[in-house]
Amino acid sequence: MVDYRQQHSADWLRHFAHRGHHAARPLAAGVEGAVYRLDEGMVAKVWSGRPPADLTLTRQVYADIARHPLPFATPDIVEVEEHEGVLVTYERELPGSPFAQDSPARPEEPDVPGEETDALLTVLSALATVPGTKAMRQLTVQGDDRPLWAGHTRFPDALAGLVERAVRRRGNVLDAHVTDLPAKVARAVQSLRALPDTAVTVIHGDLVPPNLHVDDRGHPVALLDFGFFTTAGDPAFEAAVTAAIWDMYGPHAEERTTALTRLFATELHHDPDTLALYQTVYALTTSDLFSPDGSDGHFRWCAALLDRGPW
C-alpha cells in the first residue's frame, strides 16, 4: 500500500533546535503533515499545502470546540509560523496514546471489542453536543476547491453539491470500477436533497484509531487531527463515516462496518438508511484524494463500498 503520509526531515529538527527546542524529535505523520514533539508539553505540526486562511479558520474551529466542555481534550494552537513558505503550528501535546496505529497492523476478530464500541459511543455522543459554527461552515474539505457550505443553508444540500463536484472532477475513473455509477450518483444526490433539515454540530470527519487517544484503561482522553473532512453537519454523518472507516482494511472490515453501523443506529438513534446514504457520499467524495488514477487502496475501498452499497 502506498504511504501518503508527510515525511519527517532533519531540516525541521534543525529549525526547531534553532528556535530553542533542542530535544525535538519526530512523533507522527499523516496526510496533512508531520508532527514533532518539542518539549514542555508542546508539539509542532508541519503542514503540507494548507493555505493560511484555512488554517486561521481551523484555529477558530478549535476555539469554538473548546467553549463546550468535552470528556476528552481537543487541539489547541498556541502559535502559527511560516517558514520558507511552509506553515507550522505549535500546539499543546495531547494526552494518551493512539488507540492503534492502523487497521492492518491490529489483531482482528469479527466482533468489535466492547472497549472500542464504548470509546466510539463516548466520542460520537460528545461531539454531537458541540453546535456547528460559522467558522466550521467556512472550512473546505480535503480535495475540494471551496467551502463546503458555500451557497447552501442546509447540510444535505451542501453534500449534494460536493458529490456533484467530485464526480465532475474524477468520475470517469470511478465509473470504470463501479457498476451503474451514474444512476447511483443520481440516487444519492436525490436522496440527499430529500433529507429533512437538522440541527448541525461539529464534524471531525476522520475518526480513525490513530486519531483517538486513550488512557491505560481504554477511555478516550484526546481527539486530534481535525481537518480532513471537518465541517458543521448532521451528527449522523459523523457516525456513518466512523462506522465505515474505523477499520477499513482489516480482514473483517466489512463485517465490522456493518456491526458499527447497526450499533450507532440503535444507540445514537440514527436512521439506518441515512447512515448508508452518508457512507455512499463519503466514498463518492473522497475516492480520488490520494491518486488521480485509482491506483491506491483508498480508491479501491471506495469503489468496493459503492459497488456493494444499496445506493
What would you say about this model in short?
The protein has about 300 residues and is of the alpha+beta class. The protein has ten helices and ten strands.
Cα end-to-end separation: 28 Å
Shape: globular
- Strand fraction: 5-15%
Radius of gyration: 19 Å
Instruction: Count up the helices.
Output: 10
For the largest sheet, list the strands in their spatial order: 1-2-3-5-4
DSSP summary, beta strand count: 10
Helix and strand run:
HEEEHEEEHHHHEEEEHHHH
Biggest sheet, in brief?
5 strands, antiparallel
Unreliable spans: none
Which structural category fits the helices and strands?
Answer: alpha+beta
Average of per-residue pLDDT values:
92
Helix content class: 40-55%
